[in-house]
């Protein structure tokens, strides 16, 4: 297989993204370096630069993959169902985003830095995946809830997704600080927050 073959390029890109995802489960964004990523790939740090120029590009590619997978799930919901109640739709989206908690975690990070430190072509690829997720949600809304203000739903729901992860997942240090500050605060699951938001946007009862 030629070193420049599309298959090998895709395989190595996936290996880099997978390594980044593995590290991100236990390490913070700021602590993950290209060296750290290279340590758990089969071809080392210097070869990574043939595929990604910065750490931010790798994280952007990870978020792109998450958007692509989520968009495919949402689009399938539209294709596989003739009709759907507000509760049914809220349940599907809430379950899918709970499965894709990695996407919500990435969304809670500083998008500006990731995008600013990525090449235009990498950013365009990411925006294409993001656009597909918007279209998938629009597809469901137009099919199942034709009277809904689709763009209002998009305008509220997608920014809402950026804040879900920090309200659903907290470290013991954060929880301790809230107790010490005497904050009356109840953690809610990703499912609960997504379900509630969608039901309110569709005029149902959460």
Tally of DSSP helical segments = 12
Q: Could you say which structural class the secondary elements and strand pairing correspond to?
A: mainly alpha
Order of helices and strands: HHHHHHHHHHHH
Through-space gap between termini: 55 Å
Assembly state of the chains shown: single chain
The amount of beta strand, in percent, is under 5%
Q: Give the overall form.
A: globular
Uncertain segments are none
Rg (C-alpha, Å): 19 Å
Query: What's the number of domains?
Result: 2
What level of helicity do the residues show?
over 70%
Strand count, sense and barrel status of the largest sheet are:
none
Number of DSSP strand runs = 0
Mean pLDDT: 93
Structure commentary:
The mean pLDDT is 93. The N and C termini lie far apart (55 Å). The longest helix has 26 residues, at 55-80. This protein has 2 domains: 1-51, Orthogonal Bundle (Arc Repressor Mutant, subunit A); 62-201. The chain is an all-alpha fold. Helix 1 (6-24) crosses helix 4 (55-80) and helix 9 runs antiparallel to helix 12 (190-201). The protein has helices spanning 6-24, 34-39, 45-48, 55-80, 86-99, 101-107, 111-116, 120-144, 150-162, 164-168, 172-180, 190-201. It has 12 helices and no strands.
Topology of this protein?
Layout: H1 6-24, H2 34-39, H3 45-48, H4 55-80, H5 86-99, H6 101-107, H7 111-116, H8 120-144, H9 150-162, H10 164-168, H11 172-180, H12 190-201
Helix pairs in contact: 1-4, 4-5, 4-6, 4-8, 5-12, 8-9, 9-12
Task: Kindly summarize this structure in a few lines.
With 206 residues, the chain is mostly helical. The protein is 71% helix and 0% strand. The model has no long low-confidence stretch (mean pLDDT 93).
């Amino acid at each position: 297989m030629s070193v420049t073959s599309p298959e090998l390029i895709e395989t190595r890109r996936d290996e880099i993204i997978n390594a980044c995802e593995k590290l991100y489960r236990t390490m913070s964004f700021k602590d993950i370096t290209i060296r750290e990523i290279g340590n758990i790939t089969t071809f080392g740090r210097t070869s990574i630069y043939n595929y990604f120029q910065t750490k931010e590009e790798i994280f952007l590619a990870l978020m792109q993959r998450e958007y692509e997978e989520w968009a495919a799930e949402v689009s399938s919901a539209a294709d596989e169902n003739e009709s759907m109640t507000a509760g049914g739709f809220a349940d599907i989206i809430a379950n899918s985003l709970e499965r894709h908690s990695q996407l919500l975690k990435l969304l809670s990070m500083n998008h500006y830095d990731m995008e600013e430190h990525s090449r235009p072509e990498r950013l365009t690829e990411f925006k294409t995946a993001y656009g597909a997720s918007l279209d998938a949600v629009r597809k469901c809304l137009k099919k199942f809830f034709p009277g809904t203000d689709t763009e209002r739903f998009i305008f509220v729901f997608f920014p809402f997704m950026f804040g879900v992860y920090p309200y659903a997942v907290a470290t013991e240090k954060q929880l301790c600080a809230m107790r010490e500050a005497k904050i009356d605060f109840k953690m809610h699951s990703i499912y609960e927050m997504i379900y509630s938001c969608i039901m309110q946007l569709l005029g149902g009862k959460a």
